[in-house]
Amino acid sequence: MTSNSPGIGTRLKRLPGQFLVALINATSILVIAACVLVVVVLNRADTAGARIAASITEATFSKMQISPAEFKTRLVALDQRIEVLSERLANPELQQDGALKQQLTELNRNLVDLRQVAESIRSAGPAVTSTAFEEAGAMVTDSLYALRGCRRQDREPASGS
Asked: What is the pLDDT along the chain (161 residues), one digit of tens a residue?
């Protein structure tokens, strides 16, 4: 009865090496799994960030009672006015012009309006914070449901109210 299998002593000598290889394999698998989870979490955080930004924008514009297109048009017009006034103020002969003073008065009114817009944005801060926490909580909850292989039926998209 001759066997070709190695003896117990040989097998015991190989055991630490095999154990080390098994540990390296397990560590590699864990690192790969961690990388995949990081990519998934970053994607979800990016999606939540986009939803929060949309909520912030919507809340700000609704508080200002203005459309985004109208706001952009006003900013472009204001920028053009500032450029024209800067050019006219650079010319010392035109600094005493009455029309220039009128344009400066209009510019000051526009700047007051912008200050009010900034105040509106600042006052929307608690709503933004609330939305951010709601989105973060929903993201964590959805991630946990996804890990369990379940789908939540009561999840509705967050609104910027």
From this structure: 456 777 888 888 888 999 999 999 999 999 999 999 888 888 877 777 777 777 777 777 777 787 888 878 887 887 788 787 777 777 767 666 677 777 778 877 877 877 777 777 777 677 777 777 777 777 778 777 877 777 666 655 544 44
Torsion of CA 133, 137, 139, 145, to 10 degrees: -170
Q: How many CB atoms lie within 10 A of CB 67?
A: 10
> Residue 145's closest CA among 53, 44, 64, 60?
44
| Closest of 88, 83, 81 to residue 109, by C-alpha | 81
List helix spans (H) across 91-154. 98-123, 125-148
Whole-structure pTM value: 0.42
How far is 45 from 51, CA to CA, in rounded Å?
10
- Rounded CA gap, 70 and 78, in Å? 12
